[in-house]
Amino acid sequence: MRLSQKVWDLIHKIEDKYGTLVIPDDNPLMVKLHKEMGVAQEFVKHDYDKEIIRLIKLGYNYREISAKVGHNPSACRRIAVLYGYHTRPVFKYVVNPENQPEIYLAATTNLQYFGISQSNHSNEVYKRMRKHINLITKRTHWCDIPQGGRYMVPKNNTKIFIKE
User: What confidence category does residue 126 fall into, taking pLDDT thresholds of 50, 70 and 90?
Assistant: First the structure.
């Protein structure tokens, strides 16, 4: 099959602009090239974008999203950045102080707020028992924290936030 001069011009335009012919199919120059060559274009706008954004809003991390959607984590991260989203921390611990609602912690460093070390040494466990603070290891996503639930994020040991 012999290519027309228009096709060669488009190929050279793409190579001059991007340095390669490996560009997305939805690129306007690639669409023109496909039309000139008579290639059927089966490009569909990313159907999984909405699903990835929905899962990010629910609090899943990129690795979990990639397992659910079937794409690699870096593709999920690129889509999140494209739409201006970022993942929320996964809460790993639940602290249940005496006569207070439970507080979800994303890191053991948040225990400093209660005056407790993050160590599981027997002396520290005894201090927690003496202060009537129950520490439970429980992996919790953002969507699983109830409305009005209290939580602490990493690198902020001074404030308890309330989910609205």
Answer: confident
